[in-house]
Amino acid sequence: MELGNQLLQYLLSGLSTGAIYALIGIGFSIIYNATGIINFAQGEFVMLGGMLTLFLMETLKLPLWAAIPLAVLLATLVGLLFERLAIRPLRKASPISLVIITIGGSILIRGLSMLIWDKDTHALPPFSSEEPIMIAGATVLPQHFWILGITVVLIGLNKWFFSHTISGKAMRACSYNPRAAGLVGIDVRRMVLLSFVISAAMGSLAGIIVAPLTMTSYDVGVMLGLKGFCAAIIGGMSSGIPTVIGGLILGVLESLGAGLISSGYKDAIAFVILLLILFIRPQGLFGKPESERV
Amino acid sequence: MLRLKNINTYYGKVHALKNVSLHLAEGEIVTLIGANGAGKTTILNTISGVTPANGGDLLFQKEEIKALAPDRIVKLGISQVPEGRQVFKPMTVDENLELGAYLRYRARDPKAEILKDKEEIFQLFPRLEERRKQAAGTMSGGEQQMLAIGRALMARPKLLLLDEPSMGLAPLVVQEIFRVLQRLRDERGVTILLVEQNAKAALKLADRGYVLETGKVILEGAADELLENAEVKRAYLGKDKKEIWER
């Protein structure tokens, strides 16, 4: 294969993994903006998406199209319960304690999943045919298009929610000024709950659409979660376009690094970027220092 | 309309309000004056449910509201314009005003009515209309204060609590804002509780006033009487100081 074709190949597959990172990253940002905490259980919602879909298909024999929404619903329910049981009772706790609680929650969810299901890696069937499509010498699986398409729709919905609905605006208001938000009658706790619900829904859907490509198991959430976190950091914890770009940059660099250098460095690349951003531009690639988050 | 009876409020271990009693009749403008730390802001936050009272009675239209959450208080018709404006800085003027009507959106009030109220606020503060698509944080202090008042009005309050609306503003802007407060009372019958450092301007606008010191009401009376009161003059108006001291 020529270098040009190869690069296109890496670019395309990088974009679709990047899209997944973006969705997970937006989940991190939404919760961070509403509560000031980094929810390290975010990756587990991603894992639950894939594993629950698989479970519903195999155990309840549901078709894929029915299993997906049900799995998202169940994972969202887990997110809701997580906020109710682990975050809300401790609202007076410092953000750092809450962050540690989310790490605990993540270990718990992962452990239970391992007990309920198993330690094996499973594949989810692709959403449509497995026949690769040739584009200018690069082979692309239809699943890549599903990923990109669904991501675009989700990001559009997300954007619409935050800039055109009163609940979305109220959530933003809570992140800018919780005190004033309370005084206009916004129930800040309700917004925190909503942030967990949205993040869990987006995360689980990301986990479902990527599972046909990368397989799924009880512990995929760890790595995907960290990559999503990395995307959010590049995007300056924005719940909008900067984090999407962060995810895409990360996905493409990873894919280029893995292809051109060695696939052994794939994960290292993400973490080198994470550290560089934290050292050099902690406000994110596009943020001005001390600027407002959207 | 509003009555506080022997209200006690604590900030942690600090006894911030000590047996505070005060009342407002419908359509009145009442001002709270006093030095920093006298408990003026705490009174407003106790009424708003942000720092709930530990003891005493808090009645609004004869209903006990002491234990209610801030959103319930807003729903009943009490809105606060907090100290330092506290607008949602990255959001536009329009969005800030919409959020003022948050509970009305949730209660499925007709959108047309909410929009009509927004237009009325633009009539009250024409400068906000010119800037409706501008981020609130980029406006001047006076404009942000107008926005904060507009945002509170979007909830259609019967009682408006204002915490130092004149803070850091040019005298002309303060005049403009106080004129609007007067209009709100005269034209719409909004009852107003005004906390001010600028005691003179506040007493000129108000019908009655309360003077607070270290969490206690030490003086109350008609505004024009307080303006003439020697103690008030000395401590809060900075007038005739020499006269009093040398007496």
TrEMBL record, chain A:
Signal sequence interval, chain numbering: none
Q: How does it sit in the membrane?
A: Multi-pass membrane protein
What GO MF terms are annotated?
Answer: transmembrane transporter activity
Q: Does the keyword Transferase apply?
A: no
Alphabetical GO biological process terms: amino acid transport
Q: Where in the cell is it found?
A: Cell membrane
Q: Name one GO cellular component term.
A: plasma membrane
| Membrane-traversing stretches | 12-32, 37-56, 62-82, 94-117, 144-162, 191-211, 231-256, 268-286
Q: Which UniProt keywords apply?
A: Amino-acid transport, Cell membrane, Membrane, Transmembrane, Transmembrane helix, Transport
Chief location category: membrane
Query: What family name appears in the similarity comment?
Result: Belongs to the binding-protein-dependent transport system permease family. LivHM subfamily.
Protein name (database record): Amino acid/amide ABC transporter membrane protein 1, HAAT family
UniProtKB/TrEMBL annotation, chain B:
Tell me which InterPro entries the record gives. Answer: AAA+_ATPase, ABC_branched_ATPase_LivF/BraG, ABC_transporter-like_ATP-bd, ABC_transporter-like_CS, BCAA_Transport_ATP-bd_LivF, P-loop_NTPase
One GO BP on record is: L-amino acid transport
Which residues belong to any copy of the ABC transporter domain?
Answer: 2-239
GO molecular function terms attached to this record = ATP binding; ATP hydrolysis activity; branched-chain amino acid transmembrane transporter activity
Q: Does the keyword Nucleotide-binding apply?
A: yes
Tell me where the signal peptide lies.
none
Is-annotated flag, keyword S-adenosyl-L-methionine? no
Which SMART domains has this protein been placed in?
AAA
Q: Which UniProt keywords apply?
A: Amino-acid transport, ATP-binding, Nucleotide-binding, Transport
The domain of life for this entry's organism is: Bacteria
Its family remark reads: Belongs to the ABC transporter superfamily.
Full protein name = Amino acid/amide ABC transporter ATP-binding protein 2, HAAT family
Naturally occurring in which organism (per UniProt):
Trichlorobacter thiogenes
